[in-house]
Specification:
globular, alpha/beta, 449 residues, single chain
């Protein structure tokens, strides 16, 4: 047995015996063993290389193993590897400053968490304490994390097995013109009707009981849902009218993913709280946080905030954040993401839609896109049913296998493939990925009617 095969056996055996994987029936999965990664690629122990169109879980915004970020983490580890969160530390202060400089409006205070779900938990806690109200509204088509409050806020099917019905959460329908819950025929009509529905929900729930409305600035896991122009501004106006805290979840789309530092820049909307994570360190060391407006920060100026984390603002994570933001500035990664979306991914994916009967809609911004796969473009019937599993999910499973066979690692959710490569992916790799997708979509086409 050669060294690579021996290493593969060791890794797979230990994984099977000891690792409990999330969102999975443990005996029904066979995880790929990854041997290494660099840039937009990772590879297994058998030498198979994959162009990663998922950015891991939409977080390697500057690709894998960027030398400036890995060096910064190594340097910080040698200088000061950890210190309690109650101390003022240079790298933590600098990370907070750099983030605050890029948030909209007066969101100048940064509360650090370890990840996105904890950011959501703390944002909701802040909103409830600030307003003295219990309820939080969130969209059905949403994902906000897997911790207690975050999973109850989540609207998609992952909530079902965790829903306590005691979290003070009320769900509503957000706009989605392609599958409009409001029978709208235009984007403008969809926006107007969605806002009317949201205000009706607020009124009938009792505005005096609602602490916050939380929305993904661009819906990530639900299908890269780009809100119609005017919708986020309309939500902002409703929050102002009824004294409700507006929370934007930018965990997936912050730090260049949509071609701006924060996706809210596309619509010029400033929330009261922003949740962030993922791209802030390109995932090299876990870090998340909440950017806080002046009004909410003032609530806790002389009143203790009843929350904290042992590793809040961990110095290794903050070093990774400082280096990642530096790389994005120096190398123009945010601008590159915008160009890649406008000039390469958008046109390329729309061309695929014209050629393939299985592609019902293309939507996205920057380096964050989705193809909605359907059985019929006329009826818009999804290629697989909602929350499909087993035999019902076979068409998407076959399509995913075809992507991997071609050397592309896809991010598949329901009847969609999400296209989320590194924000600094090269034009050559974009072209390669689109070519593989073109070939793989013929597998999906076979299931159309």
């Amino acid at each position: 047995m050669n060294a690579e095969a021996d290493a593969l056996t060791t890794v797979k055996d230990a994984d099977r015996k000891h690792v409990f994987h999330s969102w999975s029936a443990q005996e029904l999965i066979d995880p790929l063993a990854v041997a290494g990664a660099e840039g937009s690629y990772f590879w297994d122990y058998q030498g198979n290389r994959y162009l990663d169109f998922s950015s891991a879980l939409v977080y390697t915004n500057i690709g894998y193993q960027h030398p400036k970020v890995t060096a910064a983490v190594q340097e910080q580890a040698a200088r000061l590897c950890t210190v309690a969160p109650g101390f003022a530390v240079d790298v933590r202060s600098e990370a907070a400053r750099l983030i605050a400089e890029r948030t909209p409006g007066d969101l100048d205070k940064i509360f650090f968490t370890n990840a996105g779900a904890e950011a959501v938990e703390n944002a909701v806690r802040m909103a409830r304490l600030h307003t003295g109200r219990p309820k939080v509204l969130s969209a059905y088509r949403s994902y906000h994390g897997a911790t207690s409050t975050a999973i109850n806020l989540t609207g998609d099917a992952r909530r079902f097995g965790n829903d306590s019905a005691t979290a003070g959460v009320v769900h509503f329908w957000g706009p989605f013109a392609y599958r409009s819950p409001f029978y709208a025929t235009t984007e403008a009509e969809e926006c107007e009707r969605a806002l009317r529905h949201l205000e009706d929900t607020i009124v009938f729930e009792g505005p005096q009981s609602i602490a916050a409305i939380i929305l993904e600035t661009v819906g990530g896991a639900p299908g890269v849902l780009v809100h119609p122009d005017g919708y986020l501004a309309g939500v902002r106006a409703l929050c102002d009218l009824y004294g409700i805290v507006f929370v934007l979840d930018e965990i997936m789309v912050g730090f260049g993913r949509t071609g701006t530092w924060f996706a809210s820049e596309h619509w010029g909307v400033t929330p009261d709280l922003i949740c962030f994570a993922k791209g802030v360190t390109s995932g090299y060391v876990p870090l998340g946080g909440v950017a806080i407006s002046a009004a909410i920060a003032e609530t806790f100026a002389r009143r203790p905030y009843p929350g904290g984390l042992t590793y809040s603002g961990h110095v290794l994570a903050c070093a990774a954040a400082v280096a990642t933001i530096g790389v994005m500035e120096e190398e123009g990664v945010v601008e590159q993401s915008a160009r890649t979306g406008a000039e390469l991914l958008g046109p390329g994916l729309r061309a695929l839609a014209e050629r393939h009967p299985s592609v019902g809609e293309v939507r996205g911004l920057g380096t964050f896109w989705a193809l909605e796969l359907v059985r019929s473009k006329e009826t818009r019937e999804p290629l697989v049913p909602y929350n499909a599993a087993g035999a019902d999910n076979a068409p998407m499973a076959e399509f995913g296998a075809a992507c991997k066979k071609g050397g592309l690692w896809p991010l598949i959710a329901g009847n969609r493939i999400h296209i989320a490569p590194a924000c600094n992916i090269s034009p050559q790799d974009v072209a390669k990925g689109l070519q593989i997708l073109d070939e793989a979509l013929t597998v999906a086409d076979a299931h159309t009617v």
